[in-house]
Queue: 4 jobs
Job 1
Amino acid sequence: MSESHSGMSESHSGSRPGAHHDTPVPPSHRGDPAAPACSPENGDSPGTPPAYGTPPAYGAGGMPMSGFEERNWGIGAHLSGFLAAYVALGFVGPLAVLLVAGNRSPFVRRHAVEALNFNLSVLVYAVISAVLVLILIGIPMLLALALLYLVTTIQGAVAASRGLEFRYPLTIRLIS
């Protein structure tokens, strides 16, 4: 890793290729056991240990997530819909991801909301298609919907694994 004059790391090894983090990593988080534990969030400068008993400043959502953890939760938001989709409850998985990890990361929240909206939209389209089965047009609509669901859910999971944003097509934006 490259070192700057202040002793802080300029890049983060868990980031996307080509991405630059402006937030420096304290020496204590770089794996240097001899480095003093400092916390820029608490106003400490590099080389100044935090006061004993001072809790780290994390935000309202709990501990911050690493990029790897954020991508895993994002993937889970998309793929968890498969777990209960066969009983028309595909929205439960993305809803659970939103409730469990959505407050800890804006990235996870965006992916969970997108997956939740898509699964709710698919539920609406499936009900409409099921009604239209009576006049036989619903059968090809259900098949097309199943193919759309499979392909776009995998695309969403791949985008989340790469740290990219993803928007599902034909989605009714119910949750923001």
Job 2
Amino acid sequence: MAIEKTSSKLTAPEAQWDARQPDNIDYLRPTAMRFLIQTLPNVTYFCQSANIPEMSLGVAIQATPYIDLPHPGDKLNFGELTIKFMVQETMADYIELYNWLIGLGFPDDRAQYASYVASHNHLPSSGKNEAGQYSDASLLVLGSNNIPLTQITFYNCFPISLSGLEFDISNASTDYFQAQAVFKFQKYFVETVDI
């Protein structure tokens, strides 16, 4: 069985610079974002940074007598969503995440889980399980005029860690607390926002 070779060379019209020039040549700014999560209104307001997690596709290897041939796999793997937020003086935003983790982990008894889920099951979720344990989130990427251009929607998020806070009376400067939270989620989609 003969293997057909295909050419990956560009034709003359395809190789011309004018035919390949993008419509928009503005660059993405790292400060042009807004993070929204339904369960955490205070965290949403004070969020300072959020990431688009890495995404990877598994690889299937076909063994041959000569070299093994790689093929695209059939399962995607997503990294973790990490956010940083300024902690309010009343710690209301920190407590929102603390209560969510306590509700999911129920360190004292199962009633903590049932109570948390019952108090949050009015929120929409894309999952079939109890909606109170998950929350959808969105990262809006803003253009040069601070208008949303792209929306990354994370489905069925739940927190897996919340950073600690270290108080230190010997520190002479007034640095405000930032906390970090890490979330797992089912999947995310990237969509262009219609203006």
Job 3
Amino acid sequence: MAEQEEHEQEEHETRQLLSLARDTFKGIAAYVAWTDGDVTVVASPGAVVAALEERVARLAEATIARESAEEGDLIWEPELAVPEGDPSDAIASVAVPVTSDSQRVGTMGIVDFWRPEIADELRETLIGIAGQLAALHAAAVEPVADAAPEGDAERPATVAPDAGSPGVLEEILESIEDGVVVCDHEELVVVANRQARLLQGAGSEAAIVGRPFPFSIGFRTSAGAQLSHEDHPLVRALHGVIVGEEHHIVDDSEGKPRHLLVSARPLEVGGSTGALLVMRDVTAQLAEKARLTQIAMHDQLTGLANRYLLLDHLQRSFRQVQRRGGSLGLVYLDLDDFKSVNDSHGHDAGDEVLVAVGRRLEAAARAGDVVARFGGDEFVIVAHPLGDPNALGLLTDRIRNVLSAPYNIAGQSFPVGSSVGAVLADAQRDDPNSLLALADAEMYRHKQAGRPNGGGE
């Protein structure tokens, strides 16, 4: 009877550790498989997970079968057969060996929609939890003898630490790079790790723990609006809702806004229903993404939209016109004899002219228009929506006027001509590429007619 109770206690503590790993990393499931064949899986509840059950099992088996290159190395196992549909639906396992006395005794891992580049972020925490699982397993299968066997009198006995003890769990929580908060059923914070305190601008544990969490953890939406009490992720989790990776903002200890991906779920705390909150700081990633997007979608010289962003906006504008009606106009312009500017004044002067043209076009365009450098000395303006039938003509006139003024470059003033063509789209017949071709042809018609400033009709 006592042996069965010990086994049940070991299983309970194992599940607690796996739940900690799963909830911290917002995974689909966490598992540990011992070399003796015993496997424990703790999966997130819900229909989505049920649909993934077979895939998770197959992936865990494939991961368990693999050997890592060195002790403590991560085992990265992507799903080999990507399911039909979006390739991003593929799942993967990030795992570490569970070792005892330098011998592998099992494998512990997380299954989720992972990317290989984030696997290393999990290393220390996974190894820490795996170490506690190993200690727990060792205590169960290799109990310390009352007396050392004859011949081993000089070898000291080793007792495995209690993996479920508060000190061990606190050490694991403090090492996690995500902010972790646990509250009880009365909405009082009972756990807040170091990263959570930093994200909340709290210098000490006492500043958060024991307080009502809405007071301590004030989220704003991604748009900057203060989150109401009933919409707070922890409040919703206390009512049984699983909240997955919502974008919120908090002010850190220096008063700077930090962008977070926030998840929450119900959690048993002291025999009652509490809640777990996990906050992943993605401020740096969002800033880098914005920087790369700026580089990828904008012309580096003028700062205008580039060809790729223009085409994307044009396609979206076409779809909007097809759904909602309205008009879509396109203005295509080319600088006349721009080569002579480079030849006479140098490429630096030519670059200054292109930048100046971009600024003038932005000043002439309406607030909702997109101005792009299409390539070389060619520029395109997407005008949408056009409520007034004469709006495109008025826009074209403004563009011709602003471009007709001389350019002052390096203390010299000289004119640069332009040819401008403008067309209205037939959203039911045209497409973005054909509209660009029509506008280009209209611009070229003006150029061939010998109207340096676009002329008029």
Job 4
Amino acid sequence: MEIELFKGFQWWISAIEIPVIVFLTSLILKTRNENIITQEKLKNITNTNYIQLKDALNSYKLEVAKNYASINYLKDVEKRLVGHLLRIEEKLENTMKKGKQI
């Protein structure tokens, strides 16, 4: 009885379990290799996009530096505007004073 059970157990292992384990192992290895390849592709795409974005940002910074006003220029414009506004305010006050005198 034990020999027949042992033979049945051996048959089960050799006929069913070993092929299933081999299939699952090969499936795991295939999936792992596909994941490694996909990871490398994504890494290359990410690096390419990073380089393009970095170049675009550097170009934009250069354009801003060339075409937009500097802080010193803005301060100069502010001083001139404030000066003009103060002169306008003074003229308005003088006009109001003259109007009250009449």
